[in-house]
């Protein structure tokens, strides 16, 4: 001990994290300007990466922090997308406005879905969310004005007159089809940054601490007055909202929808789970690492069809068996580096030495 | 529309779902393991029987008898080398590992057998039917239901009237104390999963002879199996049969009203049962 | 040579050390009692010997064989049976099934069978088809003892038999011990109740804070010495 000077302070930042924040801000600016120096195909790849990242972050928030292992996130992707289509086709809304509508519809669905699924414990919660997604898919397939089971397309003029298109066209001289991609990309970038900041802020807040306590020990958390059910419900609805918005955005860009594609378990939940698990569940950095690995593998194995998913599944199993904290977790525990720290570190006192 | 016929068809369909679910119910009852690859393992067994019938020209029932020990071995190996490593207080590892296995199996089968749909030929049994009063009932659906009853009776006897069954239940209650009795929990689990997979081979025979199958249909079977188990009440095999029947009847009635509502009606029945009886129809007293 | 012996036994729960070099032995046919306050390490000792906790191989020797690193089922198969603290009956098994499961890992001929257990504890026969956990605490303790005896063990480990039971019931249960000794089993009894332990034991060990602080024959030990060894010298 060093006498009366011994003081303790709680730190939630590290030196690397501050540097990373600055680096991140630069990356976002570079990302915003990407349409100027990146070919259209690469922009579409970036769009894919960013949208998968948002899905991964919101699933990670559910499973990694709130302990809610959902395999039914495709319900929110699909509903968000379909409501966006309905807004554009039936109510002649601007696609960007309809995206928001899609998000709200997903959040609205999350309320009854949650009331039902929260009655089920642990693994049965997972099955419950899946059944909900199946029900929504089967009901939407009955929606004849939106093409029923075969689906429908967005008319070209609807997206080409979207908010911001003129800006993109006039400012940068893009052709209309290209301008749609650029707008979608910008929205995806915005969403990805917003999601990461939102999750980051949530986890660093009092509520975030409470959430971790709920995940780590249900009973103890309740004993110290944390309302676990309410907290988890909020996280469930919030992640449905994010998932719904991204789902709608993805389908603005795709411009063609069908129930089987929009409610695909593989595309919107399986991929996402593997991204989070391989990258590192329960960290913000994990999904970022995971989505890059996922994209790399996809490019590498694109020509091999189902082998790709086979490999992805095997990697997921191996990571879960032998490195449960994921690749980022392995890296972080070896080096002690945290880019987006959400833990509180106790510094000072005798530990200074 | 003949309601009696519809309900009867639904009950018989419930037998198929109970067969899908029996192994799942057994494994969950003993080790609280939720195997998300269960449906894909049924499909794997169906391909196994399909290949045995196709290449060796075997009778499908003989092929099933050969598939049973093979599936037992697969289950034993999976439990010993994969699933046992994931068991613990955290539910995430078993869920994600079995989910990964599900994706691996589906795509492995796609790679090996393409996406073409197949059917196990069962000769005259495919169309054979018997008269029950004014109703004609298919022999295959009847055989399926009878097999489901037999499987449940045998599994119940195994659980409640054998030394192995005592060990299963003791391990399920308290694995540490079971160790003090000389029971090796991980070995017990491996045998249980082996038995569940042998039952899967029986389910696969009926899956493959009664309708077409392809590598992607596993997850839907898994959902039906789970709905049966949960509706019936966790850990009760007769409950699982009851759950399967509720699901089957809901589906055939829904389908009779509008063919597009068949599957939807089953899911809605599941949601309704759980809203009114959160622990299922026949919850186990001790849990 | 002793039937069962520990040599400088150490045990850990992660970073926490619970036993600091415990040396004790049990001769064939002997009954030994281990007494000590809560947290003295008695239960850790039982868990180590029975294989629930793994230790260094040579720290526990049974019949000339190092068994410290063996798992519980292997230890049990050698003939060391345990009556665990808190009785630990299997709730989904009936009384009779609870008894039968006791010989799952070691089915040898010997004095103990369903019949002789029912002779030892007649009340269990009447209730043999009840779920084990439907019985009173004392009856549950009888089932737990009977379950361990079903494997006809060489060594019977009894962890805190009297915990939570009324004195008159504790007396009933200990009344069975002469018969168990006669059957040839060597017995280790862990107790907080010193009086009860001194009555049945040939030798006594006192433990405190993970160490043996006193040992000897009950007759030869002074009350004050036991008191000091049990609660610490200062109290």
Automatic annotation (TrEMBL), chain A:
<keyword id="KW-1003">Cell membrane</keyword>
<feature type="transmembrane region" description="Helical">
    <location>
        <begin position="307"/>
        <end position="331"/>
    </location>
</feature>
<dbReference type="InterPro" id="IPR043428">
    <property type="entry name" value="LivM-like"/>
</dbReference>
<feature type="transmembrane region" description="Helical">
    <location>
        <begin position="183"/>
        <end position="203"/>
    </location>
</feature>
<keyword id="KW-1133">Transmembrane helix</keyword>
<dbReference type="GO" id="GO:0005886">
    <property type="term" value="C:plasma membrane"/>
</dbReference>
<feature type="transmembrane region" description="Helical">
    <location>
        <begin position="46"/>
        <end position="68"/>
    </location>
</feature>
<dbReference type="Pfam" id="PF02653">
    <property type="entry name" value="BPD_transp_2"/>
</dbReference>
<dbReference type="InterPro" id="IPR001851">
    <property type="entry name" value="ABC_transp_permease"/>
</dbReference>
<protein>
    <submittedName>
        <fullName>ABC transporter permease</fullName>
    </submittedName>
</protein>
<feature type="transmembrane region" description="Helical">
    <location>
        <begin position="98"/>
        <end position="118"/>
    </location>
</feature>
<feature type="transmembrane region" description="Helical">
    <location>
        <begin position="20"/>
        <end position="39"/>
    </location>
</feature>
<feature type="transmembrane region" description="Helical">
    <location>
        <begin position="233"/>
        <end position="252"/>
    </location>
</feature>
<keyword id="KW-0472">Membrane</keyword>
<dbReference type="GO" id="GO:0015658">
    <property type="term" value="F:branched-chain amino acid transmembrane transporter activity"/>
</dbReference>
From TrEMBL, chain B:
<protein>
    <submittedName>
        <fullName>ABC transporter permease</fullName>
    </submittedName>
</protein>
<dbReference type="InterPro" id="IPR001851">
    <property type="entry name" value="ABC_transp_permease"/>
</dbReference>
<feature type="transmembrane region" description="Helical">
    <location>
        <begin position="6"/>
        <end position="29"/>
    </location>
</feature>
<feature type="transmembrane region" description="Helical">
    <location>
        <begin position="261"/>
        <end position="278"/>
    </location>
</feature>
<keyword id="KW-0472">Membrane</keyword>
<feature type="transmembrane region" description="Helical">
    <location>
        <begin position="229"/>
        <end position="249"/>
    </location>
</feature>
<dbReference type="GO" id="GO:0006865">
    <property type="term" value="P:amino acid transport"/>
</dbReference>
<dbReference type="InterPro" id="IPR052157">
    <property type="entry name" value="BCAA_transport_permease"/>
</dbReference>
<feature type="transmembrane region" description="Helical">
    <location>
        <begin position="189"/>
        <end position="209"/>
    </location>
</feature>
<feature type="transmembrane region" description="Helical">
    <location>
        <begin position="64"/>
        <end position="83"/>
    </location>
</feature>
<keyword id="KW-1133">Transmembrane helix</keyword>
<keyword id="KW-0029">Amino-acid transport</keyword>
<feature type="transmembrane region" description="Helical">
    <location>
        <begin position="41"/>
        <end position="58"/>
    </location>
</feature>
<feature type="transmembrane region" description="Helical">
    <location>
        <begin position="95"/>
        <end position="115"/>
    </location>
</feature>
<dbReference type="Pfam" id="PF02653">
    <property type="entry name" value="BPD_transp_2"/>
</dbReference>
Automatic annotation (TrEMBL), chain C:
<dbReference type="InterPro" id="IPR003439">
    <property type="entry name" value="ABC_transporter-like_ATP-bd"/>
</dbReference>
<keyword id="KW-0813">Transport</keyword>
<comment type="similarity">
    <text>Belongs to the ABC transporter superfamily.</text>
</comment>
<protein>
    <submittedName>
        <fullName>ABC transporter ATP-binding protein</fullName>
    </submittedName>
</protein>
<dbReference type="GO" id="GO:0005524">
    <property type="term" value="F:ATP binding"/>
</dbReference>
<dbReference type="GO" id="GO:0016887">
    <property type="term" value="F:ATP hydrolysis activity"/>
</dbReference>
<dbReference type="Pfam" id="PF00005">
    <property type="entry name" value="ABC_tran"/>
</dbReference>
<dbReference type="GO" id="GO:0015658">
    <property type="term" value="F:branched-chain amino acid transmembrane transporter activity"/>
</dbReference>
<comment type="function">
    <text>Involved in beta-(1--&gt;2)glucan export. Transmembrane domains (TMD) form a pore in the inner membrane and the ATP-binding domain (NBD) is responsible for energy generation.</text>
</comment>
<keyword id="KW-0547">Nucleotide-binding</keyword>
<dbReference type="InterPro" id="IPR003593">
    <property type="entry name" value="AAA+_ATPase"/>
</dbReference>
<dbReference type="InterPro" id="IPR027417">
    <property type="entry name" value="P-loop_NTPase"/>
</dbReference>
<dbReference type="InterPro" id="IPR052156">
    <property type="entry name" value="BCAA_Transport_ATP-bd_LivF"/>
</dbReference>
<dbReference type="GO" id="GO:0015807">
    <property type="term" value="P:L-amino acid transport"/>
</dbReference>
<dbReference type="InterPro" id="IPR017871">
    <property type="entry name" value="ABC_transporter-like_CS"/>
</dbReference>
């Amino acid at each position: 001990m060093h006498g009366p000077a011994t003081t303790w302070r709680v730190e939630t930042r590290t030196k690397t994290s501050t540097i990373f924040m600055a680096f991140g801000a630069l990356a976002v600016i570079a990302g915003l300007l990407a349409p100027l120096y990146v070919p259209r195909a690469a922009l579409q790849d970036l769009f894919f990466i960013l949208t998968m990242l948002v899905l991964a972050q919101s699933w990670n928030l559910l499973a990694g922090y709130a302990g809610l292992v959902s395999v039914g996130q495709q319900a929110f992707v699909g509903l968000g997308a379909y409501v966006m289509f309905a807004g554009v086709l039936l109510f002649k809304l601007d696609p960007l406005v309809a995206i928001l509508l899609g998000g709200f519809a997903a959040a609205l669905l999350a309320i009854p879905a949650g009331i039902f699924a929260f009655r089920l414990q642990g693994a049965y919660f997972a099955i419950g969310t899946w059944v909900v997604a199946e029900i929504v898919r089967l009901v939407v397939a009955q929606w004849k004005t939106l093409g029923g089971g075969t689906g429908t397309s967005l008319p070209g003029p609807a997206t080409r007159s979207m908010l911001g298109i003129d800006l993109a066209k006039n400012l940068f001289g893009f052709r209309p089809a290209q301008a749609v991609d650029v707008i979608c990309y910008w929205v995806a970038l915005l969403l990805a940054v917003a999601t990461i900041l939102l999750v980051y802020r949530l986890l660093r807040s009092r509520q975030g601490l409470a959430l971790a306590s709920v995940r780590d020990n249900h009973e103890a958390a309740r004993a110290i007055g944390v309302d676990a059910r309410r907290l988890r419900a909020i996280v469930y609805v919030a992640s449905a909202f994010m998932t719904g918005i991204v789902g709608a955005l993805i389908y603005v860009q795709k411009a063609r929808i069908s129930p089987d594609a929009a409610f695909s378990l593989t595309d919107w939940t399986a991929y996402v789970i593997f991204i989070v698990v391989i990258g590192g569940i329960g960290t913000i950095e994990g999904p970022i690492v995971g989505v890059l690995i996922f994209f790399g593998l996809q490019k590498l194995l694109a020509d091999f069809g189902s082998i790709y998913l086979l490999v992805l599944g095997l990697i997921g199993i191996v990571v879960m068996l032998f490195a449960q904290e994921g690749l980022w977790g392995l890296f972080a525990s070896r080096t002690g580096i945290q880019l987006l720290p959400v833990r509180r570190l106790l510094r000072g006192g005798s530990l200074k030495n | 529309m003949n309601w009696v016929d519809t309900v009867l068809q639904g009950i018989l369909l419930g037998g198929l779902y109970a067969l899908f679910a029996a192994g799942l119910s057994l494994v969950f009852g003993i080790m609280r393991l939720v195997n998300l690859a269960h449906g894909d393992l049924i499909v794997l067994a169906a391909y196994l029987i399909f290949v045995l019938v196709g290449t060796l020209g075997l009778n499908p029932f003989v092929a099933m008898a050969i598939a049973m020990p093979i599936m037992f071995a697969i289950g034993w190996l999976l439990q010993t080398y994969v699933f046992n490593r994931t068991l613990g207080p955290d539910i995430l590892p078993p869920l994600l590992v079995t989910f990964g296995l599900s994706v691996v199996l589906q795509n492995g089968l796609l790679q090996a057998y393409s996406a073409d749909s197949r059917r196990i030929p069962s000769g005259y049994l495919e169309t054979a039917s018997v008269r029950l009063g004014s109703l004609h009932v298919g022999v295959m659906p009847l055989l399926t239901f009878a097999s489901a009853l037999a499987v449940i009776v045998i599994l119940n006897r195994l659980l409640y009237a054998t030394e192995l069954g005592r060990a299963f239940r003791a391990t399920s209650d308290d694995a540490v104390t079971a160790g003090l009795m000389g029971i090796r929990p991980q070995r017990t689990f491996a045998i249980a999963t082996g038995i569940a997979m042998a039952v899967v081979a029986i389910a696969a025979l009926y899956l493959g002879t009664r309708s077409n199958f392809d590598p992607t249909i596993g997850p839907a079977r898994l959902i039906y199996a789970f709905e049966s188990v949960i509706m019936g009440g966790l850990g009760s095999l007769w409950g699982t049969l009851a759950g399967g029947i509720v699901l089957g009847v809901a589906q055939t009635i829904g389908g009779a009203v509008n063919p597009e509502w068949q599957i939807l009606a089953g899911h809605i029945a599941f949601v309704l049962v759980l809203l009114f009886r959160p622990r299922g129809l026949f919850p186990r007293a001790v849990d | 040579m002793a039937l069962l012996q520990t040599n400088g036994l150490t045990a850990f729960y992660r970073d926490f050390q619970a036993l600091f070099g415990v040396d004790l032995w049990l001769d064939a046919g002997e009954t030994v009692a281990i007494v000590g306050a809560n947290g003295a390490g008695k239960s850790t000792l039982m868990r180590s010997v029975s294989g629930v906790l793994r230790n260094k191989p040579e720290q526990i020797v049974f019949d000339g064989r190092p068994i410290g690193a063996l798992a519980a089922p292997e230890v049990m198969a050698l003939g060391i049976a345990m009556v665990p603290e808190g009785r630990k009956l299997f709730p989904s098994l009936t009384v009779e099934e609870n008894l039968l499961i006791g010989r799952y890992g070691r089915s040898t001929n010997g004095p103990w069978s369903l019949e002789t257990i029912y002779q030892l504890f007649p009340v269990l026969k009447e209730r043999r088809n009840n779920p084990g956990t439907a019985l009173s605490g004392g009856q549950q303790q009888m089932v737990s003892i009977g379950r361990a005896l079903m494997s006809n063990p060489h060594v019977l480990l009894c962890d805190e038999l009297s915990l939570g039971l009324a004195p008159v019931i504790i007396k009933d249960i200990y009344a069975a011990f002469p018969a168990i000794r006669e059957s040839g089993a060597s017995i280790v009894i862990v107790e907080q109740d010193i009086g009860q332990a001194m009555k049945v034991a040939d030798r006594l060990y006192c433990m405190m804070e993970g160490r043996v602080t006193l040992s000897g024959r009950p007759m030869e030990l002074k009350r004050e010495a036991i008191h000091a060894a049990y609660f610490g010298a200062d109290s």
